Amino acid sequence: MIELRDIRKVYQLGDEEVHALDGVSLTIRDHEFVAIIGASGSGKSTLMNIIGCLDTADEGSYRIDGQEASDLTEKEQSILRNRKIGFIFQQFNLLPKLTAYENVELPLIYQGISAREREDRVLRALRLVSLEHRVHHRPNQLSGGQQQRVAVARALVTRPSLILADEPTGNLDSKSTADIMGLLKELHAQGNTLVLITHDNEIAAQAPRRVRLLDGRIVSDSGAPYDRSGTENRVPDGRDVWKNGASDSGDGTENRVPDGRNVWKNGAPDSGDGTENRAPDGRNVWKNGAPDSRNISENRGLANNRKSRRGGGRT
């Protein structure tokens, strides 16, 4: 699990301070597929670097699998990156003199894995991305899409608990983009945790959860991470803006709708236990337009303009 609380990062550019991240709080649970979306300068790359332990925050707390990242030495952070995080970069970052096999094998050598186990894991990873027939090809002998598949295999070969993909389709044509996104979806379906960094709305829309950054702050989140056990999903950000009390539907979908003005409404269907799902809007008027699953009638709280007819209202 990834837990970020009130993360701040400031860069000094001459006499100017640039607040790359300004109080970001975010929780990503195991097995989620989350797209972090934003324009250039929004802070998304800085956030990815902090999540990947490639950089540290100036303020705030970042925990990965229960470990506080700021408590780790540089060597311990390096070990964590190598064993728990798989990186997929826009520029592929393949070593040009090494074959596809050797590029995928490299992180296992750093881990001290035996030659026999390395061979088994490398070939398995390359088969997973349908490149078993290109194992002896160097990067300049592969297409852009094939090079990115090698990068995906390299990210997977260490069996990480988290895969970070930074603009993985940015240098690809439309067919290769579709292939890579299909592969990422397959990886998620297999139980991997994926965080996708992108500026492309169409790419982000393919992730079940989307978090948008603007000027170093989270301005929207399509939903708190769902809990497959069916329990309620609630994740406040550092400013108590994001709230969700809708019960999980149990099928992995998310029941949340922010309206963009810090006014929270809930139209999730009745949970089946006879209770009503309500969220307050900014005027403390309770509303719910979800159909009751037992009698098909609508369960609505009393808005201000109905008080006189119903004898009062909830505030």
Structure description:
This protein has 315 residues and is α/β, with parallel strands linked by helices. Helices cover 26% and strands 23% of the residues. It is built from eight helices and 14 strands. It has helices spanning 44-51, 74-84, 100-111, 115-128, 144-156, 174-189, 201-204, 307-310, and strands at residues 2-13, 16-28, 33-37, 59-64, 67-68, 85-89, 162-166, 194-198, 209-214, 217-221, 257-258, 264-265, 279-280, 286-287. The strands form four sheets. Strands 6-7-8-3-9-10 form a six-stranded mixed sheet, with helices on both faces. A four-stranded antiparallel sheet has the order 2-1-4-5, with helices on one face. A two-stranded antiparallel sheet has the order 11-12. A hairpin with a 2-residue loop joins strand 9 and strand 10 (217-221). The two termini are 37 Å apart. The model is unreliable at 225-315 (pLDDT under 50).
Write the layout of secondary structure elements.
Layout: E1 2-13, E2 16-28, E3 33-37, H1 44-51, E4 59-64, E5 67-68, H2 74-84, E6 85-89, H3 100-111, H4 115-128, H5 144-156, E7 162-166, H6 174-189, E8 194-198, H7 201-204, E9 209-214, E10 217-221, E11 257-258, E12 264-265, E13 279-280, E14 286-287, H8 307-310
Parallel strand pairs: 3-8, 3-9, 6-7, 7-8
Antiparallel strand pairs: 1-2, 1-4, 4-5, 9-10, 11-12, 13-14
